[in-house]
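Lab meeting notes turned into a lecture example. A postdoc, R.K., suggested we walk through two folding results consecutively so the class can see how the record format repeats. The first protein's sequence and structure tokens come next.
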Amino acid sequence: MPLKTISQAVLCLSLVALLGACASAPIDYPRTPSSALEDTSDTTLARESIYWREQAPSSNGFYPLTKGKDAFGARLLLMEQAQASIDVQYFLMKPDDAGLVFSAKLIEAADRGVRVRFLLDDIFTTVDDVSLSLLDEHPNIELRIFNPISRKGVAAFNYVGNFKLANRRMHNKSFTVDNQVSIVGGRNIAVEYFQLETTGEFIDFDMLGFGPIVQEISASFDRYWNHKLAVPFEAMMTDKLRSKQEERRQLARQKISESGYSIYADVTNTVVMKQLLADELDPYLADARMIVDDPDKLLNKISIDQQTVTREIWQVLNEVQSEIIIFTPYFIPRERGIELIRDLTARGVRIVLITNSLATNNHTPVHSAYMSHRKDVLDAGVELWEARADAAKITAPDGSTQLDQLTLHTKGMLIDRQKIFVGSLNLDPRSIDINTEMGILIDSPVLAGEMADSSLAGIVDMAYRVKMDENRKLSWHATIDGKQVVETKEPQTTAWRRFMAWVMKIAPEGQL
């Protein structure tokens, strides 16, 4: 047999072997079902919220976490107050200072006897299995990996070889302590979401809440936790992982000693966190409801029947009377979305849309698809704004100018200055069709009105207004350092970035 033919045969066999590894993801590994603790009324967090619950027993209390440091500080302080349970559900965690401090606080709570359940999606979590095993080895912490790919062979081949399932992810994000207080929003566990990154920032938003809504969030967590795709981490444990644990444990201790304590002091020393510790924050009392996709969405054929979050938000939008302010990092409306926009603006509804520019978008292919719809959006009468990359210095907590990159990651809607939707949902095909999502719909004219006023005032400094002339040429308008600026091509981008955005139009829109 010729050498070339032998080489080709070996290559084919190698590829088959690598692809074959994908079948061994341990989905059927045995697990013990569990649920949120029902009676936690004697916990500190229950007692601290009793005054507000007595004022409005059927309502919820909410407080917006607009700044990253407050959002991280709130999570850490709540973990310190935990006495019964902590339930954590996230799309991704990174092995950076935020992930390290977050994990350390979970372990501290578990050391006090708090039951910790940690549900983490697999694909974009970059914390390696050795570090994750340090969490799971604690007797009071159980870690489950949602929809894991095989640990055998090469990860990329395992993903591609089982693409039909591996491509579909749990994008949900929630954090619940003692079944009394929850945080829901768009943030994952990584430094860029919490104003801890030194070069840039993801602008994001969370809502802290207590009251009946927490039980709805806990019920959603339980549904995912006990689902067949939530695999106990012990299924991934090997002797090789165990042999590396002590070395990694020592490294984690060193990193906590070097930076962890200063980060903790930084994020718990803000004005809002001091008010939270002193019980001086007045929550917004409001009715609310949880909207969440069923985890079976990932196992079923893509259809509108599976799109619970999208379907219910669609119904809410169809009832809008006067104004919608939309924040979304990724916007690919497709024809159905454009039709809804046209219907609403034809009724006189004002639509303000804030999304990423090419310069701020961390997923260029998504922006490429959005570009194809931009003129249709403007034709429909939308007030379209795109984030400025250099606006990061405006959001810096200390006014620092070292932050040179802003990315909008906020996912939410302000509806008729009456309702607020906050959660994990992006307005793109991936969130709508492929992944699971969650969010809460809050009915609070006071909070919604305040947030609408603040948002409309803030976007002037944070974003470009996109306009289109009679020749259908686009232009970007902003006020920068007190001066009116007009750009006639994608602002703050290089020719190469614009070229790549054009090339990326070949990417399949349905996967974005």
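The second example is placed directly after the first for contrast:
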Amino acid sequence: MNACACTQVTKEVLPNPVSVLIDDPDLDYASARLIADSKADELLKGPMLLGWYDAKRGKFSPDVECCSEEKPGWIVYAESRGGTLSVDINDEEYVFIYMDTKRP
């Protein structure tokens, strides 16, 4: 997984971003993921993670290199597969995109 060199991750390119602020300088990916999963559980009936971004480590998944002109490839990938909710932790320090598997 490489850092995306195409475009920056900003709130403006995220699908339905929900901001979460965590005052913990030692926050890591694993802890951020648990927080994001919990938030997604509150907001969706059947959340499934489709993509994520870790600014601290400069990594993202899926490792999709192609980008649109407006969005990194991992966001385009998640949205094209039904991603409708972004949990944005600490202003794009960590971002997780989910789809709802139990939408009507």
